[in-house]
Amino acid sequence: MNRKREPIWEISSRWRSAYFYLFSIQGLIGECLVIWYELALRTDDTAIETCIAIYRDLALVAAGAAANTFVILEVMNNAMITGKITEQWLRQRLLEPLKEKQRAEGLAEGLEEGKARGIAEGKARGRAEADASWKAWNRRRLEAERKGLAFNEPIPDFSENGTNAKNGS
User: What does the pLDDT read at residue 131?
Assistant: First the structure.
């Protein structure tokens, strides 16, 4: 496995811009709140104490924003990975068997249609051949009758394919 190892706190390259924007927004909001709190609500401090408090609180805001942004992006990343895994599992367990079942049903339906069509075409061809045989036999019979010749040719028999023209079954 030749994957490059990354430190646990490193932000992956695909999340860097999102990290920067999210961190910047959280940091800016936190900094504004810290400055507002120190200047507007803590009026009894001296200017030096106020500056020190602002610097101290800004460090906490930056660390909190960095950690919070990291956690948010890792949760999003893991949710996306979990979503991909779930999608693959659903595809393998549900979708592929359903597609296979539909394909098998379509194949069976196609075979039945083909079989029915083949039987119908076979019957039509058999009827056409029987009609042609009967017409040819009748033409020869009428020709012999017109010429006054004896006609002793037997009527066409289709008993080999299950149909007997003599009795119509």
Answer: 87
